[in-house]
């Protein structure tokens, strides 16, 4: 079941994201960030509607720019179309807000390219670079993500 994230999901989202970050799959997020950006998140739950098995966020970067980020599906639920549904929900959310420049920074290029994302240069994303990338410990020399 796909739905918008709720306050009751935050601690579980925090756990998932930070475990994934420890494996180098994404950047960590603090509880304060997650509470502040909760409305960015979609979750995919088991049939009980409570157990989160996947998540993704659509974050507004600027007046004409949105980012799909923090995509994660528990390993035992992968290859079932859940990640696709999560990304599609985020893209749809952005379009509903009249945001048509939608990007991601990822190490999963084939997945996102199958969804219609294409290569772009990071220089096309100055708002992202100056607002968030500058704070990243991997910036600029160790960034392992591809902008699409």
Report the C-alpha radius of gyration, rounded.
15 Å
Mean pLDDT: 88
The biggest beta sheet is recorded as: 5 strands, mixed
What is the multimeric organization of the chains shown?
single chain
Strand content: 15-25%
Q: What's the total number of strands?
A: 7
Strand order of the largest sheet: 1-2-3-4-5
Low-confidence stretches: none
Percent of residues in helices comes to 25-40%
- Helix/strand structural class: alpha+beta
End-to-end Cα distance, whole Å, is: 27 Å
What is the number of helices?
A: 5
Shape: globular
Order of helices and strands: EHHEEEHEEHHE
Describe it.
- The protein is of the alpha+beta class and 148 residues long.
- It is built from five helices and seven strands.
- The strands form two sheets. A five-stranded mixed beta sheet has the order 1-2-3-4-5. It has a two-stranded antiparallel sheet with strand order 6-7.
- The model has no long low-confidence stretch (mean pLDDT 88).
